[in-house]
Amino acid sequence: MVVKGFTIGLLFISLSGCASFIANQMTSPKKSNIDGNISEWAVVQQLCDSNNYCVKAIGLGELAAGDHSLEFSFHINDNNKIWRYETKNSGVETAKPLADHLILLFAGYNQPTEVLYIHQLWLQRMTGAEVIVIPSAENTETFKFGLDYAPPIVAEIQRLNPEKVHLIGFSMGALAASEVERKIDNAKLYLVAPMIDFDYSAKAIYDILYRDKIYATFISEDTLEDAIQIVYEESGTTLKDTDLIAKLNRVKSPTFIYVSDKDRVVEYSSFGSIPNENVYVNFYGELNHLEMVALLSQDLMTDFVSDLLERPVLQSEVSTLGILCDFDDDNCLNQLPD
């Protein structure tokens, strides 16, 4: 039997009880499992604060204004998926309801930035706002749950001086989005499948990805606990710093939350009673974490765009997302535009 080197290495460190190695794996950037042409018009830029602390961000270049047929494939565990999206410039001037606004998309933990590029494009097309993608928290030199993103992002907001700032946080990206919200006074906050407990979410992700692997037997609950504690210690953060529910209890900006009862990564029940009239929670069924953070639901998309535009929208208005199919599902793929 052939066993990959990674599996052997993980088995070895697990047997050794090496929680520090697991902590390092938790906070290190991962290679994207997405292939496609979706980043042709993305422009990487640096956002910096007055102390010259910078974070990477992705804006839209001039190529984004044209017609696009975008396609990418990616892997979810052992499944291959394909996603295609088309947009055409009709030449007719359309309404730009958020023309003087700024939209920031905060990627979730280990969420490939490319997944947000399509959302970035249709959001700009639909709203007229400037749209910037912020990569996930593990893409910085020192992992801090994305909380360190706030100063350079706030500096950029002050430079651009938009009428309104829409902060959209996916999974762990909710922490960075909510931290920015605390420091500005013209924000709206949108949290999709937000991570409220790193301990809970880290264990859930491990369970989903690795529980059925041969080496999982040798990784104890105590080792995972130790690894999570190391993450907090090395990041210089505390449980209070990442307590999103406590932050939501105090949030002053309009805040919209989107959660699913089938999302094993998020503690769904914690959103049942947040005593803050600024917080609105939308509940969905049968959507897993990946489907939530990729906005792979017409109901979810419709609610999100309605909240963004501050008016009810029809599902036909948000049919821009394309179709997600199994790689070999011909019936599904035949529905995609040519």
From TrEMBL:
User: Gene3D superfamilies in the record, alphabetically?
Assistant: alpha/beta hydrolase
Tagged with keyword Cell wall biogenesis/degradation: no
Using the record, list the residue span of the signal peptide; answer none if the entry has no such feature: 1-19
Which domain of life does the UniProt lineage start with? Answer: Bacteria
DNA repair recorded as keyword: no
Q: Which UniProt keywords apply?
A: Signal
Residue stretches in coiled coil: none
Protein name, entry field: Alpha/beta hydrolase
Query: Which InterPro entries does the record cross-reference, listed alphabetically?
Result: AB_hydrolase_fold
